[in-house]
Amino acid sequence: MKLINMKELLRLLALFLIFVTCVLCKGQNRTEVPKDTIKSETKEVITPHGFPYGPYSETYSGPNSITRTIIQDRKGNIWIASWQGVFRYDGKIFANMTSEVSSARFFSALEGSKGNLWFGSIGSGVYYYDGKSFQNFTTDDGLLNNEIVCIYEDKNGNIWFGANGGASLYDGKSFRNFTMNGNSMIEDITGETFSNFRPMNEVNSIIEDKTGKFWFGTRGNTFIYDGKAFTTVTHNGKPFKNVRTIIEDKKGNIWLGGSDGLWRYNNSAFTNITQDFVGYIYEDKKGNIWTSSETAQGWVLSRYNEKTLSNKEPILTEIKSDYEGTKRMIFGILEAFDGSILFGSLDGMYRYDGNTLTDFKK
């Protein structure tokens, strides 16, 4: 009889322990992982092309992936060429202007002298916007390649497109094409286009200097074009290769940035400013030179003081950031009308107001 009572007691004790364990587990689930926390960690807001930006502001509707080029039109609107499309920012809200037009990744942008806008894509050619509708130009229309890296307007109003494999010149009616041929560049008279072929080199930057000559920065050699022939740009017998950006400053100096660092050309000699890789160069209204460069500590936004630019080592200010996107790469730079510096990165657009670096997404 005593043995039976002991068994019953043990059974009741076991049931009691199971009950207590279940109650405690449920209580822990409610305490340690509340529903609000789960919702917050998994919530994603989707843009028109389906890119999530996770923990950022729910009201943000701008680009949150690779942002290559930023320009400001004469009305003050900011236009952003990104891999999610072309965005317009009026100072308050972002609008994806190409979400219903194309799903292409956009690389370059230009406002022409007549106020019309051009946008270069990777794979879908060029899009022209007159303020009301878009018109698409591709290799079917005579464009050299559907991968457009840069866009430039010359003094005669012609539009140049730096493409994969060369460049196209558009006079408003038709295209003239110039192709990379090994270490040289020539005008193409065959009418051949690269609709289904991706050449090794691309034209990254095009400018017309004050003398009327054109400079072409490519992943191969750098060239000067006088309207008749292309000449390779060299220093001490060595060609400049993989130049990503070329600009002419207000004083007429030519700046080149790329794998060989940052160089200044004053019409007589080249001066090396830094050997760090330079991806983009921009001159602000005061004449300061801004660059995006890759240092041993990561990517930085750099400003070279205008008053010291003639020195071999001008005064440099580096703006570093804790933002992950800017640590890995910085793209196109723009000084907005309000004096702030805007630039693109791997995860959207940023602003530097002289004191603070701000992520638009936050």
Provide structural commentary.
- This protein is mainly β.
- The protein has two domains: 35 residues; 304 residues, 7 Propeller (Methylamine Dehydrogenase, Chain H).
- It is built from three helices and 31 strands.
- The strands form eight sheets. The protein has a five-stranded antiparallel β-sheet, with no helix packed on it. Strands 1-2-3-4 form a four-stranded antiparallel β-sheet, with no helix packed on it.
- Strand 9 and strand 10 form a beta hairpin.
- The N and C termini lie far apart (74 Å).
- The N terminus is likely disordered.
N/C terminus separation: 74 Å
Q: In which order are the strands of the major sheet placed?
A: 9-10-11-12-13
| Strand tally | 31
CATH class of the largest domain: Mainly Beta
Radius of gyration computed on alpha carbons:
28 Å
CATH architecture assignment name of the largest domain = 7 Propeller
Number of domains: 2
Summarize the structure.
The chain is mainly β. It has helices spanning about 1-30, 35-40, 325-330; strands at about 65-70, 80, 85-90, 95, 105-110, 115-120, 125-130, 135, 150-155, 160-165, 165-170, 175-180, 185-190, 205-210, 215-220, 225, 230, 235, 240, 245-250, 255-260, 260-265, 270-275, 275-285, 290-295, 300-305, 315-320, 330-335, 340-345, 350, 355-360. The chain has two domains: about 1-35; about 55-360, Methylamine Dehydrogenase, Chain H (7 Propeller).
How would you summarize the topology of this molecule?
Layout: H1 2-32, H2 35-42, E1 67-72, E2 78-82, E3 85-89, E4 94-96, E5 105-111, E6 117-122, E7 126-129, E8 134-137, E9 148-153, E10 159-163, E11 166-170, E12 175-181, E13 184-188, E14 203-208, E15 214-218, E16 223-225, E17 230-232, E18 234-235, E19 238-239, E20 243-248, E21 254-258, E22 261-265, E23 270-274, E24 277-283, E25 289-295, E26 298-304, E27 316-319, H3 324-328, E28 330-335, E29 341-345, E30 348-352, E31 357-359
Antiparallel strand pairs: 1-2, 2-3, 3-4, 5-6, 6-7, 7-8, 9-10, 10-11, 11-12, 12-13, 14-15, 15-16, 16-17, 18-19, 20-21, 21-22, 22-23, 24-25, 25-26, 26-27, 28-29, 29-30, 30-31
